[in-house]
Queue: 4 jobs
Job 1
Amino acid sequence: MTILQRFKRLSIWNKLAVLGSFLSIIALFLYFFPVIDSNHADKPAQVAGNNSMQVAHIAGNVVSNAPSTANDKQPSLRPSTPPSSFNTVETVFPMYLGSYWRYNISLVRQYDGPKIEKKFGQYTEKVISIDIQPDGVTRIIGTEISGTIFFSYCNDPDSSLIAQGDLTSWYVNDTHHVYHACTRENAYEIAGSAHTKGEAIINTPDEGSNKDSPEKVYPDYVVPFRVGNYWADEGVKREDTYYRYYVEAKETVSVPAGNFKNCFRIAYRTLPDSVVLWVCPGIGLVAKEYHHNGSIEDYRSELISYQIIPQ
């Protein structure tokens, strides 16, 4: 008598028991010998569900979510344990030589209907120079921005927010402040002034004369971040949080580069418009959004890949 004939002669309950045992064997086989999905086998792994990229704890290794290539000399690492605190600029913004961040740019439109998002460009910001000042703390950092530039602070005020091409941007970082400068000369002026007090002085051309006049500049960021903290209020006395950088919330952010926990939403809101920044400690800026009141269109940039190279 064949196995099939024996199976047909079993009762319905015995048949179910045999089938259950057979399916259990298949499940165990698949558990120990998983089948590779060819549709996903070649795709690069995305960043894990938290921003555990504290570079100070993994010095000498590259932190990246970019796809690996045969020419890569250093591995992409995703540490499983994030550091307990991010109290300095360097730990929040790991701006090391050669590191880069690549962003998508989208136009978001919503008017009497579903939100429509149209991607129309990318840009990459890469650290190309670092000049440590005599105090051993202040750093003048030059970055190269290439591609479609989103909301350049140094654009002509009468021009579009979107600029095309390449430019060099400058930052002045100390232990707790990040200043942005439009020129190398301005960066050194900020570094040479009392910038650690939360404001600095640069000389700008005075319209109608051939002389320069001093101008106060305020930091873009003051670290450590705490919800409710604010800075750069420029002496404006208000009851609300407008006309200053204000840390609104601590939240999880999802962008093409991955899902990042414990990020800070920082806003600079005015009556005509607002800029909202999402900063994830250990990674840096992961998203930026510009909104003009009365407009149905917003500009948004999101991090799509990055590589951090600790020194």
Job 2
Amino acid sequence: MRNDTRETIRRLMRWVVSHPIPITWRSNSPMPSPHGRKGRKRGSTGYDLVSRGVYEPGDDPRTIDWNATAQVGGQEICTVQYREPRDVKFFVLVDCGKSMEFGTYRTVKRLLAAELTGSIIKSAEETGDRVGLVAYSEQHVERFLPVKAAKVMLFPSVATVVEASAIERAKQRRGQRGGATADDGKTGLMKALRAVNQYSRSLIFIISDFIHMSEDEKVMLKKAAVRHDVVCICVQDLRQRELPDAFGLYTFQDMSTGKVQSVWSTKNNREKFKANFELWRTSLTAFFRQAHCDWTEISTHEGEAAFPKLMRLFAGHRR
């Protein structure tokens, strides 16, 4: 690991630890503690109360709540139903493709994704839940970290996203001979979703810019949303949304395809550029709603200003 990479990881870890997200929702695990140990109140079964009712012939006698029956004077026999709580599994799927290397304010999208990954895992640590991570690129799953306690996953997950530079990865692959794998027609996102679909119902965060999503990817994401609770976090940069408010000739390169195009920054072109982005955003929002996925947008320049968005996003899960 290079010295600049180590310093980047240390800086991100300091940022994550010093900017915790307040947890306003409960874990599915009984009595979560900050140290990840599952406990329960004295005299409690540790199970979640689901409903109360009146005993009828044929019901299981073990469901009778004798204390509640005594409180009503024995006029009716009360029953209670419990549900066995289970650990909540988090999966964080992080896009580390070429387009994530773009950024003009504060940081690039990939390092913003590393900040968000750390914040999510830190939140899971506070509730004592377990986390897995999948870093993927355009055609590959770059690294898969199996589900473990959030406390031990925090540093490896942030380090994985920081080290997953598409530029360095491309240099390494050019230097390898015979190392290419057969293309099975699946993209990196599809392979990542296939990996997490092997697990039981989980809370899945997908952090990506969602540029150039194929129809096959959309179909697989819809299927994953049926099985899991999927949250999509769309990372962006200001220059994806609008051109600089100044006259001049600007040259753009598509980081995924390498295509280069020059554009005059006139008022008319700036309006067209913004309108094209809004059209793409509207289409993406409609897809997320159709797929029943929660989603939010976070830009590279926001920093701490993104916290309210994350808190609102988290508040809708596992209440």
Job 3
Amino acid sequence: MQIDEKIKELKDDIEILDRWLTIASENGVFADEETMRDKQSNTNQSQPISNPKCADIPKSFKEAQEYLKLVWDRLYQEEHQGKYGQHVAGQANTMNSGMLTIGDCETCLSKVLEFYSRSIKKLDRKKRFLINGLHIIGYLTTMLILTVLATLIWNAHNHLNMGLFDTRYSMVIYSATVIGFIGGIIRSMYNIVYEVRMRVFRRASWAEYTMAPFIGGSLAFIVTVGIIGGLITDIQPTLQEQTEETKQSEQKQQNIQQPYGFYIIAFATGLFWRNALNKLSSIVGVKGRLEDRDGNIKRIE
């Protein structure tokens, strides 16, 4: 059972390393190395891995993928040899035949990780700045500061010059939109920090994180108008059950006078804008929901 658990652990490590390498390749980490490798391959045919023990660190993305495939195939063979006694016999045959042992598999994966780490360290500051999403963090931070300052100035101007908003509804809708915009900014910043820490930040996500504040603000505006207009009834910010039309009207007016429930809903809409989009889709009769799986947005029925 101990060998089976070790095989499972190594297979999980292979999947993690493969994901890191694939995302790094998408982000252009190995672009220069692959260009040089392609030039060399015009004169020399690429050879398969000559050292089954993985004694050397991979020299390219393709070679690192071959290392992972070699270890995966060896673990697959080991896993299907059967019970523990057969594992022991298999290990003895492996040592005699020169194939990879479990220890060799660990060493091989360590070499692939070393290749990945060296490739990241060899990048210049500009590329490391980009693959860590620092440019988007700076953009979102600037947007957050400008939004807060603009809101403070606007509110101060509104208090000094009464009548900029015709009704209390306008003030609530405006504030909810701004709060949804801020929620989208915070969500994008959190996602970037999390993905960079997990080494899964994709260059393909730049557009989504750049536009997320605008999506969050727009959806917060739509949700707030829908609640005020009575189109969205299952997330009304109410504290008591409403059974009569008069009570509904009075409760709506009370919510407008104390609109903190709207603001919480607006912030949640901007923070979880994809869930809000699924909610609005269900209201208009669109079946399924949008989910992000391994960088691909799919509609789940």
Job 4
Amino acid sequence: MNAPIVHVNASIASSNAPAPTDAAHRPVGGSYTFGGRKGRISPTRQRALDELVPRYLFAPPFDASRPLIIEIGCGKGEATAAMAGGDTDSLVIACEPNAATIANLASLLDDGGITNVALWVGDALDLLAHLGPASTAEIRVWFPDPWPKPRHAHKRLVTAQRLGLITDALTIGARLRIATDDAAYAEEALAAIGAEPRLSGGIVARPPGRPVTTFEARGLRAGHRPIDIEAHRIR
């Protein structure tokens, strides 16, 4: 028997996202990050979407004295929930355009009594624009879709244009952390970082606090080597 098609509560779909902007007036085409594919989910996940996700949605005002950590593309949120205990002095905003997927993270937050994580259902770079420049202490991007086909290259997150928008959001001294197991994607990200004069960084050893994500585990089984990149805003 097929699971029901996911139904996204209208309040969830609209609570986070700013008013839509015509594609021609957006800095980087019609969308910044990509996702939100519709699909089928279990009744349990649907209940989490309807009942739990609204509880954790990010909405101002918030305690500006707490450092902000933005995770772009949190997926099901296993890494987000696992790392939350090490970020108790910060507010982590986990961003994911797929509401059905982020419902899993809402369940993890509820089950674990985690109170320092909020959810943004929508485009992460819309959130950064909403927060304003120099607002963020750390931005995390764990295993973004590499979009390997040339016709999909415009969808890659870590490009020179999008990296400029990400850098705008970082405070001086703040860091951008990326993990990928696609060597070509890592090379492109490093080139973009090298071309951004406000950033300094490169490949680093795997941080001990970063857990193995679902995508990383899949890649490891296929023989892929994870690559961690870290860059700091220096000016």
